[in-house]
Design goal:
alpha+beta, Immunoglobulin-like, 2 domains, 4-stranded antiparallel sheet, 2 helices
Length: 103
Amino acid sequence: MNVLEVNKTDYETCNSDHPIYNWAAGAGRDVVPFNVTRHYYFISGKGFCFRGMKIAIHVENYPPPPVAAQNNDESKATFPYLKLHSGRSVIDRVWDAFIQFFW
């Protein structure tokens, strides 16, 4: 098998005649760095693309982290996402379940 990077047209038609790059390093240790935001198109040559051995990948930047709402309540300021409606934290409930299961 091989890992050929191709353009979109060659991807759609399974044309492996003019790949952009051949990422096959041998022994199944093919590594492709996805360090540029763009579309990547990969096919396997020798007819395998026609049997479905192809993949298109869209790489994009991480979205910015959500802005935390300002909370003046000291009890919820540390880990507000761990609190449940009953006031007990998720950690408390997991610990209780662990204790009940093993004891």
